[in-house]
Amino acid sequence: MIKHKSLQHVFVDSFPSRLKPGKLYVSVEYGSVAHSCCCGCGEEIVTPLTPTDWHIVYDGETITLHPSVGNWTLACRSHYVIRKGEVIEAPAWSDRQVAAERRRDGQAKAAYFGTASSSVLGTAATPERDAPQNLLRGDIGWKARFRKFWTEIFR
């Protein structure tokens, strides 16, 4: 059951040490979004903004986060969509559906980054092993592409 039916977005340089319920923190600097789980359990949810993970749409007033947020590793197993600042409860997924999505996600990452992702191979993923080397070295990577995206939008 969803306790927080809407989220007020806040653009931040970095996330606060304690996330306030009902707030959606957007860090362009770190290319990620964070919020307290909308079910009210208090768990912190962080969604990375990358070409193969989540993305946001900011219409000047509200934030939409896509795809849905599925908290499959948490006790609450909540699942919801954040659309124009509103939280919409989504149906629960079975373990089989979660496993299929993890395989699809691993394949998407492998295809995008041009490498065999460890999640596709069935081993534990780590950012150091799965991230393309240019992102780890700080070369032109997702942060620079994200900044360019925002710059082009607000010209």
Secondary-structure map:
Layout: E1 8-11, E2 23-27, E3 32-36, E4 44-48, E5 55-58, E6 63-70, E7 79-83, E8 86-89, H1 95-113, H2 118-121, H3 127-130, H4 133-137, H5 142-153
Parallel strand pairs: 1-2
Antiparallel strand pairs: 2-3, 3-4, 5-6, 6-7, 7-8
Tally of strands: 8
Instruction: Give the proportion of residues in helices.
Output: 25-40%
Main β-sheet, in a few words?
4 strands, mixed
What is the average of the pLDDT values? Answer: 82
> What is the global morphology?
globular
Structural class: alpha+beta
User: How many domains in all?
Assistant: 2
Task: Catalogue the unreliable spans.
Answer: 117-140
Give the H and E element order. EEEEEEEEHHHHH
Query: What Rg is obtained from the alpha carbons, in whole angstroms?
Result: 16 Å
Count every helix, treating DSSP H or I runs of 4 or more residues as helices.
5
Biggest sheet, spatial arrangement of strands: 1-2-3-4
End-to-end distance:
41 Å
| Percent range for β-strand residues | 25-35%
For this structure, the quaternary state is single chain
